[in-house]
Amino acid sequence: MPHVEFTPQLRRFLSAPAVDTPATTLRAALDDAFALNPRLRGYVLDDQGHLRANVVIFVDGRRCEDRVVLADALAPASRVFVMQALSGG
Amino acid sequence: MSNDRAWVATRKGLFEWRRAAAGWRIGRISFLGEPVSMVLPPRAGDQRMLAALNLGHFGVKVHASDDAGANWHEVAAPAYPAQPAEAAGVPWKLVMIWSLEMHDGQVWAGTLPGGLFRSPDFGRSWHLVESLWNRGERAEWFGGGYDVPGIHSICPHPGGELLVGISCGGVWIGRDDASAWTLQADGMRAAYMPPEQADSPNTQDPHRIQRCAGTPEVLWCQHHNGIWRSDDNARSWQEVTGAPVSNFGFALAVHPQDPDTAWFVPAQADQCRVPVDAALVVNRTRDGGRSFETLRHGLPQAHCYDLVYRHGLALADEGCTLLMGSTTGGLWGSTDGGDHWQAVSPNLPPIHALRFG
């Protein structure tokens, strides 16, 4: 089952524990995490549901280039890391 | 509004300052390390306040306190609705909260990229004022100091109207509970536009607008190209041409009772945003702009490069206690209307906003 982890930088604002999800796309995996933790959504996505400009996501070690649809496919053993991008300071 | 407590919103936290016999001292620091773009201080008899954070990675957040900053909890942040595919122009994404005001039980938030939001429940929910956002004129607005336009001044009128100042989108008055808007920047002049568009009210850059509380028909504006005043609630604006040192600047303060008294902080020019001759001064008029005094006693007069931005000058309700903070973290205070200044702190983080309360 894909495993999603969130940067510990978020801990100063809210709890963001890792999530295991049966999702097959990145967007669906994030939606599962937000369903458990609704406030987290606004920290990762912007008003239009796009990935925030200074947040970056890695799927199995590869940085996601699609910041709008978030359609990256997930395999059962995928590991997803949601990180702060250093462009944000 | 007290004159012995002030809130300084900075690039690295919110600083509460308390004034005692020995002068101003830091009381409490909240959100240390986080950018605080604006603060809504407690009002008389009310301990509630709001702080707008602009997190570098995770976006705009709003925190509320019910006990004057002792404890904070996150509330909702304004959010733009889904952007229609055919909607051209700026992305409908909240960039920053640039202004916060409370009037008649509602909180108003002015934002980049130019949307005005209202909250009927002190930040638990926010609603975009679509009657302004959907105006066709918005397509002509553009950023002033930022990539996108923004609302930096919100001036309620006791009669119920709401004035907003937009960089760069002129001056708008909302009537009928902010459901109907008119553009009211006639008389202003934009030297940064092609000559044939210099008088266009929709592309004016009012850096900051304040209303005289005791005479609410009177408004003062520090504009990109000078100082303007209105004595008819923005139906017309008259340029004030006699300011010494420089007529360029960002911040102003208006006396709460005397509509002829106002303070300005001149800077050299838009292409060189430092004090003229590297000497920090404040211009004060007491006769509606017919004459000015340049106040410099106690302010650095050599090799000073501090810029006082739009919300960096605050005046207490009694009309004589002032605080002034710069984008390089200098903070000065006066208790006699600016005749004399005292250095409060030379090395705060860059100061975004400063308010008594």
Number of helices of chain A: 2
Alpha-carbon Rg of chain B, integer: 19 Å
Can you tell me the number of structural domains of chain A?
Answer: 1
Measured by DSSP, the beta-strand proportion of chain B falls in 35-45%
Helix content of chain A: 10-25%
Count of helical regions of chain B = 1
Overall structural class of chain A, as computed from helix and strand content, comes to: alpha+beta
Which architecture name of chain A does CATH use? Roll
Number of strands of chain A: 5
Q: What ranges of chain B have pLDDT less than 50 throughout 5 or more consecutive residues?
A: none
Subunit arrangement of the protein: heterodimer
3D structure, described in words:
The complex is a heterodimer of chains A (89) and B (357). Chain A contains 2 helices and 5 strands; from the N terminus they run ββααβββ. Chain A starts with a strand and ends in a 5-residue tail after the last strand. Chain A has 89 residues and is of the alpha+beta class. Chain A is globular, with a radius of gyration of 12 Å. The longest helix of chain A has 11 residues. Chain A has one domain: Roll (Ubiquitin-like (UB roll)), CATH 3.10.20. Helix content of chain A is 17%, strand content 21%. A 5-stranded mixed β-sheet of chain A has the order 2-1-5-3-4, covered by helices on one side. Chain B has 1 helix and 28 strands. Chain B is mainly beta and 357 residues long. Chain B is globular, with a radius of gyration of 19 Å. Chains A and B meet through helix 2 of A and loops of B.
